[in-house]
Amino acid sequence: MSAIDVLEKLEEREIEELNRREFFKFCGRMAVLLGLSQTAIPRIARAVEKAARDGRPSVIWLNFQDCAGNTESFTRATAPSVGEALLDHVSLDYHEVLMAAAGHRAEERLKEVLKEYSGQIIVVVEGAIPTKDDGIYCTVAGRTAIQILKEIEPHALAFVAVGTCAAFGGIPKANPNPTGAVGLERIIRSKPVINVPGCPANPDVIMAVLVHYVLFNRLPELDAQRRPKFAFGKKIHDTCERRPHYDAGQFVLSFDDYGAKQGYCLYKVGCKGPVTYNVCAAWRWNMDASWPVKSGHPCLGCSERDFWDRYYPFYEHIPKTGGFGVEARADDIGKVALGLTGLTVGAHALYTAVVKSAERFAEKLASKAEEGTGESEGKDEGGEA
Ligand code: SF4
User: Fold this and answer.
1) Residue 189: CB atoms within 10 Å
2) What is the 372 CA–ligand 1 centroid distance (Å)?
3) Which entry of 121, 206, 321, 370 is 20 to 30 Å from 110 by CA?
4) Domain 55-232, architecture per CATH
5) What is the pLDDT, as a whole number, of residue 278?
6) Whose CA is nearest to atom 6 of ligand 1?
7) Four-residue CA torsion sign, 330, 247, 288, 234
8) Residue whose CA is closest, atom 5 of ligand 1?
9) pLDDT of residue 372
10) Taking the chain (385 residues) in consecutive chunks of 10 residues, what is each chunk's mean pLDDT?
11) How far is Cα 117 from Cα 97, in angstroms, rounded to an integer?
């Protein structure tokens, strides 16, 4: 064996090792996101690996009235790499944007999957569905989005509407809604629909919905808007890193002022974080690098129903919302609420500690698995929170 061969082998081993570590890290993050204890990590790893081995669940990803931003978001999931996640751990059988096949071959593949996995398919839908004029404003391979969905519906186990367009109609539905766009829940009647809104949806949340299914063999608990409770139970305002500034009455008043440079709260330049439910502040985008508020832009409330019409103009105070009352508070809060600062800083510190601790635990498991003792860790299984 030449030196180059040895080096190549070494490289392969290192890559495998890295993937294994990344995989355990991913399982750790999923445990935190799903509200499970660290001891659930080996169980998650086994469930995901078993699903990969058995080729279940089969996942079909459809694109309708959208910009493919959710696909973009998904391909930048924190860990593992999208190739590993899609090809090794989840059976993604049809995705118009990512699959190699195109045209007739792609459509044939869709038919094969419907036949082969009927009743076991999770259908991910990205984009709104136009209903005006028999839905002619969005067609794929000569069929309207409605026809495609109606054909797939009997074969599906469940539907996941990723992104605000698929969940609630989003931007295509914005006034005057020229194509009669609606969210998936208005089309699918006989199968469960899970909404993962966001523009784009958070990639870790999309993965966590799938992981929840392979782990517990059932779909996650949903709120009244069909959103998974594990991800949409808190307002962005509750976990935002700028919250201490809100509580201290320190606000950005224009995007080039002293407060903007200091990272003050963006509420007075239109932030909708106090009325928006999502995990953005805790689970960021682009390999966990950042999210809009961190980069200095107010939250637009993009994961809320009809945000485009309800929250416009985007760079002004939130219009008065029944029962909300943050506007009056924001103007007075600096005078009275300094005590809260410690609490919110504490909440951030706690969150960071939980994630870090899960990651450390996952790293340890990966090392033990490499030494051949990883299986014993799996005996200590966690339950659902
Ligand atoms: S108003 Fe916006 S920027 Fe300010 S703390 Fe809340 S979510 Fe963060």
Assistant:
1) 9
2) 47
3) 206
4) 3-Layer(aba) Sandwich (3.40)
5) 95
6) 237
7) negative
8) 243
9) 57
10) 48 59 83 90 87 80 94 72 60 77 85 92 96 97 96 96 98 97 97 96 88 90 96 94 96 96 96 94 83 96 95 80 48 43 50 65 67 44 38
11) 21
Q: Under CATH, which number does the domain 236-336 receive?
A: 4.10.480.10
pLDDT at position 63 is 95
Mutate to test the pocket of ligand 1, among 243, 247, 275 (most ligand atoms within 8 A of CB): 243
Determine what percent of the chain is predicted with pLDDT higher than 70. 73
For residue 221, the model assigns a pLDDT of 95
Gap from CA of 277 to ligand 1 centroid (Å): 12
- Closest atom of ligand 1 to 266 CA is 3
DSSP 165: H
For residue 34 the two structure tokens come to 């799903």
From CA 271, how far away is CA 267, in angstroms rounded? 4
**How confident is the model at residue 38, as a pLDDT?**
86
Which residues have any ligand 1 atom within 6 Å of their CB?
236-237, 240, 242-243, 246, 265-267, 271, 273-274, 293, 299
Q: Indicate which atom in ligand 1 lies nearest the CA of residue 240.
A: 8
Burial label, 25 (beta-carbon count in 10 A; 0-12, 13-18, 19+): buried
User: Per DSSP, which regions of the chain are E strands?
Assistant: 58-63, 91-95, 121-126, 129-130, 139-140, 143-144, 156-162, 181-182, 193-196
pLDDT at residue 98 in the model? 77
Domain ranges of the chain: 55-232, 236-336
Looking at residue 315, its amino acid is Y
DSSP 8-state code for residue 85: I
Tokens for 15, please give them. Answer: 């890559």
Q: Are 311 and 272 within 8 A, CB to CB?
A: yes
Which atom belonging to ligand 1 lies closest to the Cα atom of 267?
1
Spatial separation of the C-alpha atoms in residues 26 and 45, rounded to whole Å = 9
Helix (H) or strand (E) holding 1: none
